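Re: beginner question about structure tokens

> Can someone show what the tokenized structure looks like for a real chain? I only ever see the sequence side.

Sure, here's an example I had lying around. Input first:
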Amino acid sequence: MAVATPTKLTTSGNGAGVFRNNPLRTQVMVVIWVLVALAVIAFLAAISTTNARIQTFQKIAAVAVPSINATNDAIQLLSGEVSNTAEYILAGQGKASAGLDSATSANDPTAQKQAILKKIETQRAAYDRALQEGYTALIGPDFTAQPDSQTALNYISSRNARLHDALAQARGLSDKAKTPEDIQTAIQAYLNGQNDHYQPVISSLYYLRSVNIFLLEDAEKDATSAAAFQQNLAAVAMVIFVLALLGANIWLTLRVKRILLPLVNVALVAVAVYSFFLFSVFSTSANDLAKVVDSYNRTSLSSDANLFITDAVADQVQLVISNDPIYKEDLKKKQELLLATRNDKNELVTDPTLLTECPATSTARSSYKPEGVMGDICRNISQPAELTAYTQFLGGYKSWLATNTSFDNLVKINKSDEALALRAGDGAKAYKQMSGALTNLRDLSKAEYKTKSQSGTDSLNLANTLAWVIYPLALLLAGLGLFLWRREF
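And the corresponding structure tokens:
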């Protein structure tokens, strides 16, 4: 009579002996259950790691990006309102203003003021909308910066209301002005409002933007440095699972003296290929995440550059209407913050002849000498379209610097009307060229963010989906292969 082969696991002995003391069929069942456990661990590790990286992209898209966009918009719009109020006062005096479009008659002060006032109203509405839409996500339980966003926004609202009131008062006084003394009163109201409230609002906006840039960079750090331990655990789990499949294959091949289990081989190949794919995705998504941070740092630089040129053209007006040398010094400072270079004496200058083009190669750009935010933008350019926009900006900037030199010389000899006419003509053309180039640079950086964010998220979602397919399928193939061959043993 044949004796049935026992399948119950024998526990006598110790260590590896416990396993060897059991029949081959029972050993195969043990291997199947071990593979199940390892597959579950590897699957959970892969899923948790990809989900963590996806959440990082989502956090950036939901909080940091809209808030940085909001501050960049708000900074630019607020500086535009302040600058256009100066243009409004000029237009009220019948002097040349750079705040007009070509369709507005320069000989009609009323039409000039109405055109400028319409721009101011549009800027104010867009400014309020930017703050309202951009910081909704910040007022939540996860926001821990001090002062908190609500406090900062309340402060901005308070200061901003005072600034708007001061600018509106200055425009009203300008409308009612009958004598030079009345004009001077309007000018002083404008200067006082700007000096008392403009810089505190801008500084608060910078604070809120810096918080979000920190969130952006912190998210990248969490996803790369801090998440390295989690990724290593996932790697270990996947390697162990692959080795277990390989070990089971070799072990059974040696036991029965033949090439075994094609289904196990298929499972082994599937998991190995997926493992390589997953690590490729992790590497690519980390690079995409770094590009996301870089692109949004560049949007902030472009926004700062636009702020500097807008403040600079406003300083020109303030210098003329106030005769205060502080505005000449501030104008010089804005140019240095924007783009300047060192002369033979190592002095920081804005001589157009010393400002070189941004190099065409990334290696050469890394050693670009000029300083200021535009120097930083050049050194961080990542695509040919950005280089083209930078070249457009530099051409406008050199033209504006030459115009500003002539403007300054005319102001020195008390030819303010000629200086303002030059500013409203060639100066306005150069400003428009610079502003257009900076807007283009900012749009290119935002487009790169969208591309890299979408690419990183899509690849991680694909890896996540494949994990739900590959690991159960590999486990099914391996288990089925072992179970079918178990009868021969």
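Each token stands for a local structural state, so reading them left to right follows the chain. Residues 416-486 form the longest helix (71 residues).
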